[in-house]
Amino acid sequence: MDMHTVVNGEGAERGLERVVVGDGRASGVTASDVLAVARGGARVQLSEEALAALAAAREIVDALAAKPDPVYGVSTGFGALATRHISPELRAQLQRNIVRSHAAGMGPSVERDVVRALMFLRLKTVCSGHTGVRPEVAQTMADLLNAGITPVVHEYGSLGCSGDLAPLSHCALALMGEGDAEGPDGVVRPAAELLAAHGIQPVELREKEGLALLNGTDGMLGMLVMALADLDTLYRSADVTAALSLEALLGTDKVLAPELHAIRPHPGQAASAANMLSVLKGSGLTGHHQDDAPRVQDAYSVRCAPQVAGAGRDTIAHARLVADRELAAAVDNPVVLSDGRVESNGNFHGAPVAYVLDFLAIAVADLGSIAERRTDRLLDKNRSHGLPPFLADDAGVDSGLMIAQYTQAALVSELKRLAVPASADSIPSSAMQEDHVSMGWSAARKLRTAVDNLTRVLAVELYAATRAIELREGLTPAPATRAVIDALREAGVQGPGPDRFLAPDLAAADAFVRDGRLLAAVETVTGPLQ
User: Fold this and answer.
1) pLDDT tens profile 451-493
2) How far apart are CA 69 and CA 67, in angstroms?
3) Which residues are reported to carry the modification 2,3-didehydroalanine (Ser) (predicted)?
4) 137 phi and psi, to 5 degrees?
5) Please, are residues 403 and 318 in contact by the beta-carbon 8 Å criterion?
6) 19: β partners
7) How many whole angstroms from its chain centre is CA 358?
């Protein structure tokens, strides 16, 4: 059941979508829902099925709370303190205390879209009917999202096991009217003031609710979903920049022939080669690799571009499979089962998500690395097949793009450091009760930086390749290439000429890749790329 719907009514007048959450299961939320709420500001609505499931699960928790037998998270302490039975008069205080004590993050605030994704995904699990949270608590979570109130969540505090504890605790703290939050105007204020200004009553937590609000992989999953969306754009963009570099280097497009890729049937590789071939169609620059300086084959960074990008695409496909499974999950401990049992479990461990976050960081580093090698080749007069040194106007007087490549190299070096897996690490915590953790939040944070830096790396390659193509006087680029160059120049990125202040050009090229204008320009000629 696809729960991502566009409805009329409040919020629709502002052009916002509304995402309906909950059909009594956790399987109705999609990646597009997460993006709509996290980045598009979509409003959130709880379905009648969700409200019914919440009420039914709550009845089970209330019944257990009334019994003398200890139940973890309902009538006991937490973690290494789970052996203490908590008397009824202290249980509300217990739930408040776990939120307050676990809201122990440090460092800079994380981005608004990350927090909104985290809040929405926790709400998704709450609405599954497996957590025992009351309907009014879930509704308050939706109210905060709809009001544009974003709790302040800090960079450090999650080990990725028992979920993203500190980040989720800061969100739960705001539900209680405590801590700080950012309003829809971007100004940070006390959460109590923001809730009052929007007519939202702070929640009074009851048995199990504090724990249920903290115990999930929602932060790392939200960042994975957003990274996958960004990488979809960047991998297609990388096919474009690789094609332009091949063209600028007078390479051959024969290596992109479908029959060559069919005999090594990796789907990502075939898609990447097909994209490059589409971009190069009609080029007057390809096939000149035997003209002045005969070469049997192009360098690996050019010839093997589809193989490297394709491997990354296949890694993305695997990561998307993991993300979809996690989106269909109800992660909490303990969980309320459909037969009425409340059972402890280890589903909060972030390993499945952490691994693919690290896999993606490796793929991103390699894609950035091969793009930098093509850029360096464009600038080297001994390997660029007739281009001026550093693509300079008057080499010696002008330095051309020498230092643009330095910047790109620094970014690639950082990508390689970010590729070191966080999930290979584990630091025991909670008096050795939580003696193995995933570090998935850390994996997600470094992937987010890596995706950001990959965008800049591709922007430098784009800047160099388009400049080089324009220096190939007398040769006509492919129509798709011409469309990219025209759109790039219209965006304020200047072409060949004497040295000038380069940072503004590079920033404009970065924005051109980042906001999708590169793909839009290409696809006016090629149609949608794969």
Assistant:
1) 999 999 999 999 999 999 999 999 999 999 999 999 999 999 9
2) 6
3) 162
4) -70, -45
5) no
6) 4, 44
7) 12
Does the pLDDT of residue 68 top 90, yes or no?
A: no
Residue type, 39: R
Contact 338, 60 (CB under 8 A): no
Percent of the chain residues past pLDDT 90, beyond the cut:
76
CA geometry: angle 68, 70, 71, nearest 5 deg: 125
DSSP H helices, 148-294, are 165-175, 191-197, 209-212, 218-248, 258-262, 267-280
Is residue 24 pLDDT above 90, yes or no?
no
**DSSP codes of every residue in 496-511:** S-S----HHHHHHHHH
Cα–Cα–Cα angle for 431, 435, 440, nearest 5°? 120
* Distance of alpha carbon 246 from alpha carbon 287, whole angstroms: 10
Residue length of the chain = 530
Q: Residues 50, 24: contact at Cβ < 8 Å?
A: yes
Angstrom distance (rounded) from CA 143 to CA 44:
8
pTM score, whole prediction: 0.93
Place of tokens 């090594």: 264
Q: Are 220 and 160 in contact (CB under 8 A)?
A: yes
From the candidates 72, 235, 355, 463, which is the catalytic residue?
A: 72
Can you give the pLDDT at residue 84?
76
Known catalytic residue at 406: no
